[in-house]
Design goal:
Layout: E1 4-9, H1 38-44, E2 55-60, H2 64-70, E3 79-82, H3 87-102, E4 107-112, E5 115-117, H4 120-134, E6 139-144, E7 155-162, E8 165-172, H5 177-186, E9 189-199, H6 200-210, H7 212-224, H8 230-240, H9 246-251, E10 257-261, E11 266-268, H10 272-276, E12 287-289, E13 292-295, E14 301-304, E15 311-314, E16 319-324, E17 327-332, H11 339-348
Parallel strand pairs: 1-2, 1-4, 2-3, 6-10, 12-14, 13-15, 14-16
Antiparallel strand pairs: 4-9, 5-11, 6-9, 7-8, 7-9, 8-10, 16-17
Helix pairs in contact: 3-6, 3-7, 6-7, 7-8
């Protein structure tokens, strides 16, 4: 594993975790699963397979200092900040040119910072399998056996087995419910977790084929690595880039994509309902944290970060209640994915200070 690395993607503001998540304190630096923050848990579950010198993190420039404090187990320069967010294709490309500059034989795993993984040892075993396949030049992804016909995730169609991995026949965008039911019933479709492994050389070659404008900018950035010109060059080139994901821009079009079927339990921690499913719960299915109490309440998350303000819930079923010193959220769990609408309304009504 001398030439193996990992890159954790820790951008975004996490508006679906308002009011705990704010523009200046995004979800990746919050302990939404209990214990350490999401980004720290993501990094820690890579040890001991990788050493701190082999792990990097890409985040937004305005969040970089926060992330560095959370990741004090890594060298400070291993947190790479993007001048503006341009989705995952740009972040992956930046990581690839940076790692190739450091190590021409670099291979790296890409892991989002907002995932739940139940067993780090199994994750590491699957990543080792993926690294072995990537060493042969393939682009490798990780597929999750569906727990049900979800419309929240993209899907991977499993093809023939090639040793310990499978060929991916095609990527499918988030489907409607009936299509998702068909995918699950077939047994041939897995969820796309957004976890990838490849060599820096292989992914950059594929970016050049599929996204030539991005490739051109990355070459300019690569020429400035190790020089005082880098901040200026990076800002100029990023300003030109369109927003596009690595899935849509590259993976859906790539000719040789392989898949490791995950042996670990996984979830995308994208909303309060998802986070509450992986936090300690009482006999009634409630998660209660902070100065709060619940009576005749079930399957609810009640959380208060203000010790001077008690939150009491009565007769709730499947609700999220989150109180901070300056804002309170109350919503049904099954609508927690819609919090962006609340954030937009708060902005429209002039409550920017709470965002």
């Amino acid at each position: 594993m001398d030439h193996a690395y990992a890159v954790v993607l820790a951008g975004g503001s996490g508006t679906r975790f308002w009011p705990l998540s704010r523009l200046r304190r995004p979800k990746q630096v919050l302990p939404l699963l209990g214990g350490a923050s999401l980004v720290r848990q993501t990094v820690e579950r890579l040890f001991p397979m990788l050493e701190p010198r082999q792990v990097f993190c890409i985040t937004a420039r305005e969040q970089a200092d926060l992330v560095r404090r959370e990741l004090d187990l890594l060298p400070p320069d291993h947190v790479i900040d993007e001048p503006v967010g341009r989705d995952t294709a740009a972040a992956v490309g930046l990581a690839a040119v940076f790692l190739r500059w450091r190590d021409p034989r670099a291979m790296f795993a890409v892991l989002p910072a907002d995932h739940f993984v139940d067993d780090p040892a199994r994750l590491q075993a699957d990543l080792r399998t993926a690294f072995a396949a990537a060493a042969e030049g393939a682009l490798v992804t990780v597929g999750i056996r569906p727990r049900g016909p979800s419309t929240a995730y993209g899907y991977l169609q499993r093809g023939p087995r090639e040793g310990s991995v499978h060929r991916v026949l095609r990527f499918r965008e988030k489907p409607d419910l009936e299509t998702a039911k068909g995918y699950v019933a077939s047994g041939d479709f897995l969820w796309n977790a957004g976890i990838f492994v490849w060599s820096a050389e292989s992914i950059l070659a594929e970016i050049e084929r599929r996204l030539p404008a991005l490739a051109a900018s990355l070459k300019v950035v690569e020429s400035a690595l190790g020089t005082s010109r880098l901040p200026t060059v990076l800002a100029e080139e990023y300003a030109r880039l369109p927003r596009i994901s690595i899935d849509y821009g590259v993976m859906e079009k790539a000719s040789r994509v392989l898949m490791v079927e995950a042996a670990f339990a996984w979830d995308d921690v994208g909303s309060w309902s998802a986070a509450s499913a992986h936090r300690p719960r009482d006999a009634a299915g409630n998660t209660l944290e902070g100065a709060c109490a619940a009576v005749d309440t079930r399957d609810s998350l009640v959380l208060s970060t203000d010790p001077k303000h008690v939150v009491a819930a009565l007769g709730l079923d499947g609700f999220v209640v989150v109180h901070t010193p300056d804002a309170t959220l109350v919503c049904p769990k099954n609508r927690a994915d819609e919090l962006k609408k609340v954030v937009e309304e708060l902005r429209r009504r002039g409550f920017e200070k709470t965002l």
